[in-house]
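Pinned message: reference record for Putative MFS-type transporter YhjX
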Amino acid sequence: MKDNKRTFAASPLMMLICGSIILALALGFRQSFGIFLKPMTGDLGYGRETFSLALALQNLVWGITQPFTGWIADKYGTSKALLIGALVYVLGLVFMAYSSTGVGLTLSAGVLIGIGLGGSSFAVIFGALGRAFEARRRSMVLGIAGMGASFGMFMVPPSAQSLINSFGWFKTIIILAMTCILMFVLSIGLIEEKKPLQEKRDTGSALSEAFKHRDFWLLGIGFAVCGFQVVFMLTHLAAYVQDQGLTQTVAVNALAIIGFTNMFGSLLAGYLGGKFPKPYLLSAIFFLRAIIILIFILTPISQTTVYLFLGAIGLIWLGTVPLTNGTLATIFGVKYLSTLSGLVFVMHQIGSFAGGWLGGVLFDRTGSYQAIWITAILLSLVAALSYLPVKERPISELKTESQQSNVANA
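Predicted structure (tokens):
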């Protein structure tokens, strides 16, 4: 009787669709938080450093949480990790709306939403998709899912701004919380089929193997730089644009442009990742970021230059995510992909914390974002160089070659 028992499992296509929509919601909400900076600080009386610290902590908690939610997804199923993430995300948004002090904002927008993102974003979703699709299609599939996340980034900020204009920031956050409940239903589409995998390692062995591997840490360094740049711009770009004399509408459009162009950028990254070595593509992305940011800060700011800058940077905004996860899957396999992806994401979020927080600190101290822009350029070069030595080959092959070499030398 037990052998005849059948349980529901989502098809790979359903997993891709539901996973992409969840990413669109989770990342779209997160992309919009920057437009709440001015209205909330203006109404509640705390400075940009306080708001920046809350969002910086959000990214750090998101990163710290990701390996644990990734482990839950690997061990007990992606849908269970998503249910936890969605519940905490909704609670975080509600408490954020009712937070009238810096401490309340830090606990809600920082801690709770950080945990919610940990259970509803890249490591959890990409781990499931990496297991659902074969290696030859994996890079393209991850690029499509990244495109879904970018669609949310394109749609949510202008929608949220329209709601703020009509109802104010408080009711807008409540509306976002109610929309976030959709993740509960969509999590059903990520129930995985139990497939026997050839990998015999346990979690501890997989982690030990990764921690001893040079390329795991090189991928983490590059991802940390990505987090620094992305979260600095997400948190401070809207305010920076307005500080230069442009309107709130331009600032919101700028955030939407990132999401729009990155829909194509993520898809392109996924496609190219199936054709060319992913570490080289990652290196190229960061060389391009350095050049684009340098041109932007040296050019007199206007509506046109802002839109051109965000259009260009958006093309390579989240292309790092499918390429990094695809490289991890190639090197370390897919059985513990969510866990290992989560651990690399911790490094991404350490960079995110630094970028978001230091942007606010230096602005409050100097009245300018210039030092952070320059730092972002220098770190781009560090990241670009860190990817070049990475070898996109299964670790099992490298072990076999090493053993054969040792035998031959003996």
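Pinned by admin. Summary line: The two ends are 55 Å apart (CA to CA).
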